[in-house]
User: What shape does this take?
Amino acid sequence: MNKALNPKSVHAPVGVYSHSVNVPPSARWVAVAGQVGMNRKGALASGIRRQAEQAFRNVLACLSENGMRKQDLVKLTVFLTDSRFIAEYRAARARVLGDAVRPASTLLIVAGLASPDMLIEVEAWAAKG
Assistant: This one.
């Protein structure tokens, strides 16, 4: 089982994440390409909250296809196109992943994504022992 670790010599996480996640040596890894707020029919959701929720649902669908669950997430990298979206992104993450799932996480504010209509992209790593 993956184990979240937050060293006492480092500040407490300032969000719903862990500073590090220890993965057992026998674990099977899955890399999930950056997911955006697009549904299976190719329609992009409107607004940051809906796009974020769809992006996280897409990550979970990729995990499921590989026999994994959200508890197997080890690392998230989130790209937002505007820092004003942080609160909405956090609300969407909480709604889809819940607060108990705390992978290592990096949040970046970027100038743009593959399409100017895309507001968020989420890539993930997961491991299952």
About this structure: The beta strands are 3-5, 20-22, 28-35, 73-80, 104-109, 120-128. The domain at 3-128 is CATH 3.30.1330.40 (60s Ribosomal Protein L30; Chain: A;).
